[in-house]
Amino acid sequence: MGESRDPFGHDTSGEAELTDPWVALEPGADPAERVRALRRAHDRFTEGGTVQRPVRSVVADSWRRSARAGVAPDGGAGVELMDGDLGAYRAEHPLARVMPLVRELMGSFAADGEHLLAVCDAQGRLLWVEGHPTTRRRADRMNFVPGARWAESAVGTNAPGTAVALGRPVQVFAAEHFVRRVQPWTCAAAPVHDPRTGRVLGAVDITGGDGLAHPHSLGFVQAVARAAESHLALLAPPGAGADDVLELTALGRDEAGLLAGGRRIVLSRRHSEILVLLARHPEGLTGDALLCALYEDGSVTPVTLRAELARLRRLLGPGLLASRPYRLTVPVESDVTVVERRLETGAVTAAVAAYGGPLLPASRAPAVVRLRHRLADALRTALVARGDPDLLADWVHAPWGEDDLDVWRALAAVRPTAAVCSRTAELESELAAPPGWARPAARRTHPRSATSAQPPPP
């Protein structure tokens, strides 16, 4: 049989799939033998970049992402949030509201089985780690502690970090972990989604010994995650009722999501732009100002805009969109303002956690483009100033940051691995290329260079 390779050139001809590829051990498998085989496979991968039996595809893919992120197999987790910073961040996090339920469902299981329950945020930061005291002391030695960063881009394959990276439940057994010091452990984790927006808020995890490789542990954490989502759906937004606030989600998506009066609405691109701009201007915008803010083409008539606003008014329902000037009649909470508010208070980590990507990335509306650039630049400037290698790594391994030379340089200064230095040098050579050189189609330009000068804000 011929050798098969993945798009990265790695040998995959020896990969084997279980009946359920998301379960670490099929019934009847010998855990000790599987550990030995996985260690051999891990050594082969870290030495030569090829994957062999019995590595599951979900783990092989994670190993490759870990290697591309520059994770060292002999590295470890770093603690990012401590003391007051950790307490303040946890108190603000949406999952704080479901922790009593998580403890009720998982606490006894963790304590009685000498396991740990853990809850992380969407960036893989551990917020709570609780359970058997002896197990906690052992976990402390590898920094599996509250405030530590267990994102896949920081410590490689692990259940909480990989679960939030994939947005689905995952089980990681022994030497499937990318970092060797974590390989004595087995864990299962499931992401918790915001029931209103669908975004990943974090994950619930159970960590302990080889016994957790049983399929039941994967089903268990998934059931807990679903219970947490159901509980969040029952809780009213703090400080406001469902009928007197609009919630707008516009980062990282071309069509914004709106929660209005308990209804979830997916807006058209133009309606998304209008809502973003009206949310920025609670005092309202005149028709002329809104026309200039929305359209590059000066030939677009006020009649076209009025037709769009009429359609939006029907979509929102009575009383929410007023005119003369055009304005929203209820407060709007958007993910853009959340990021801005956190940056203003110096909470860079929390701002990154709330940043789902560029604002309406396909929009060419002049005022939206300007706001998109301003927010991204403020965030990346704060990241470079902070110099946290894990936050910088998350940015450059996201689609919007993969060609961001300034952030790659900042990452190279604090984490000068071969992969990071190579990518930085590649981008610098592209920057120094002669004027007639054609940039490869796969490259993404930095948001600041995507658009020429824009008209002043409305």
Summary, kept brief:
The chain is built from 17 helices and 11 strands. It is of the alpha+beta class and 458 residues long. Strand 7 and strand 8 (263-266) form a beta hairpin.
Question: Could you characterize what this model shows?
Answer:
There is one protein chain. It is built from 17 helices and 11 strands. The protein has 458 residues and is an alpha+beta fold. The chain folds into 3 domains: 1-235, 2-Layer Sandwich (Beta-Lactamase), CATH 3.30.450.40; 246-334, Winged helix-like DNA-binding domain superfamily/Winged helix DNA-binding domain (Arc Repressor Mutant, subunit A, Orthogonal Bundle); 341-449, no CATH class. The strands form 3 sheets. It has a 5-stranded antiparallel beta sheet with strand order 2-1-5-4-3, sandwiched between helices. Strands 8-7-6-11 form a 4-stranded mixed beta sheet. Helix 4 runs antiparallel to helix 8 (215-234) and helix 16 runs antiparallel to helix 17. InterPro entries: GAF (IPR003018), GAF-like_dom_sf (IPR029016), OmpR/PhoB-type_DNA-bd (IPR001867). This is Transcriptional regulator. Residues 448-458 have a biased composition (Polar residues). Residues 1-20, 429-458 are annotated as: Disordered.
Instruction: Let me know the largest β-sheet.
Output: 5 strands, antiparallel
**Spatial separation of the terminal alpha carbons:** 65 Å
Number of helices: 17
Classify the secondary structure makeup into a structural class.
alpha+beta
**C-alpha Rg, in Å?**
24 Å
- Helix/strand order: HHHHEEHHHEEEHEEEHHHEEEHHHHHH
